[in-house]
Amino acid sequence: MSIETPLPVLKPTDFASDQDVRWCPGCGDYSILAQMKKVLPTLGVPREKIVFISGIGCSSRFPYYMNTYGVHSIHGRAPAVATGLKCVRPDLQVWVITGDGDGLSIGGNHLMHAIRRNLDINIVLFNNRIYGLTKGQYSPTSPLGQKTKSTPMGAIDNPLHPLSIAIGCEATFVARSIDTNINHLGETLKRAAEHPGASFVEVYQNCNVFNDGAWDYAKDRDTKLDTTLELQHGKPLLFGKLREKGIRLNGMNPEVVELGKGITEDDLLFHDERSPEPSLAYLLSRMRYEDGFPEPIGVFRCVDAPRYDALINGQIEEATQKRGQGDLEALFNSGDTWTVE
Hints:
Helices cover 28% and strands 17% of the residues. The protein has 11 helices and 11 strands.
């Protein structure tokens, strides 16, 4: 008779490494790190089954601060490293930690393909609209006109919008949260971890040294209820301090309306995160504060689709059953061969 030894109950402190955290005091990264440590014990996954993979940047120091396995990889290539790891070790829970520079500039190609393949990994992109580690150059998400060390007369590149890119790549789980909205951030990370497939989470994160206040409109206690809209599946798109405003469609375009005077909740758009058609999620990802809209936070899309890691291992298993175990030496010496002298 065998007796199973119960797994130890983990606490947030169990996920803290022995490394000193070396982000600038007041950086939004601290909040994301704290919420991650709170979420992981609730998932029931042993620490030795969790891996954090990062590229280069302030966000990419994350693996040092987690008492799990981790890889501090190459600039922009974390999704590629994660792809290899998840395919050969599908039993692992793999997180990719990246930033707006690392993930959307040099790493844009790798990020796009990891998402479109629906690899079963969790991607968290810290968006502070600046290059922080290299001391304040503009990034792919910096708004037009932003003056930085590398754009002293103002940025002239059209900014990228991370969620729009993810949805355009047919991401099966897309969400957004804010570093200071800790309860919302924790719940968002938990849902991402539980999703079977590629999950993509953008976090509005403040760089208080090189781009302080970039997201103040979405954080300020006096304004955030009017400038953000918390998405709830099956519920109308309502916002405002009294939830007196909403979003409806005017043709194919969203517009802000006030309830009353003939306008009811039934006239508003209702959120459907499970819709197989991503058009509504994409429309929501395009709503910008600077255009007069509240910016949605929460889960934009959550659908099921075949997973790359499962499919590739399924093909390997099928090939093994049909052809037997492969012989690498025989493969190298098959077909046309020649000797170079």
